[in-house]
């Protein structure tokens, strides 16, 4: 069962099965000015995110009902909401898997609640400075209409190309692997080669370069993936 907070511009979802820890984090986040919804089970998290569009998700790795990695994978199939994973596991592989699935940050227990608040504040600042200021980058995305504008000119993108551009541009400067991009562009989880991303990137670049701006903000990072570069 979740506990809905009053509506504010920055509404966070905290998913943590340790009730005492969840209460401690909720208090720290509320004191910093955020509204917080708390859930203690992973089963309905992705559907809640789909319906409510929170500003950020704090997601524990080990949860009853459905584990955090599975929930993260589900969320990334339809949303680029900023997401921080929380876990008691400290092994490097657990961190890498979480980041590979699309988590933006990772914090291990035990921790000071103020550290979590600081991480939230920093990620929110990066995400919303970018989201709220598309004019400075030349890119504007209308997600309801699936329309993209590059320096004021409309781009004729396919739904897959739109989702690809959205995933890349939402995290400017951050390298996204082909696996992460596949999770973002194919919402039906179809099995395709990760090299399929390269074909879509090629088409997307061609459309960006053929626009009036004639520029390409997508940069390949050898052996890793792609990133969206802001000059």
Unreliable stretches (pLDDT < 50, length at least 5) are 1-8, 129-136
What is the helix/strand order?
Answer: EHEHEHEHEHEEEHEHHEE
**What's the total count of β strands?**
11
- Helical content (DSSP H or I, runs of 4+): 25-40%
State the secondary-structure class. alpha/beta
Largest sheet: 5 strands, parallel
CATH architectural label of the largest domain: 3-Layer(aba) Sandwich
Shape: elongated
What fold name stands as the CATH topology of the largest domain?
Answer: Rossmann fold
CATH superfamily of the largest domain: Response regulator
**Strand content bin:** 15-25%
Quaternary organization: single chain
For the terminal residues, how far apart are their CA atoms? 45 Å
**Strand order in the largest sheet:** 2-1-3-4-5
**Number of continuous helical runs:** 8
CATH class identity of the largest domain: Alpha Beta
Provide mean pLDDT, rounded: 80
Rounded Rg: 18 Å
Written account of the structure:
The chain is of the alpha/beta class and 231 residues long. The protein folds into two domains: 11-130, Response regulator (Rossmann fold, 3-Layer(aba) Sandwich), CATH 3.40.50.2300; 133-228, Winged helix-like DNA-binding domain superfamily/Winged helix DNA-binding domain (Arc Repressor Mutant, subunit A). Helices cover 40% and strands 19% of the residues. It has helices spanning 19-31, 45-52, 68-76, 92-100, 113-131, 159-170, 178-185, 196-209, and strands at residues 11-15, 35-39, 56-60, 83-87, 105-108, 139-142, 147-150, 153-155, 176-177, 218-221, 225-228. The strands form three sheets. It has a five-stranded parallel β-sheet with strand order 2-1-3-4-5, sandwiched between helices. Helix 2 packs parallel to helix 3 (68-76). The longest helix is centred in the middle third of the chain and has 19 residues, at 113-131. The protein is elongated. Mean pLDDT is 80; it is low at 1-8 and 129-136.
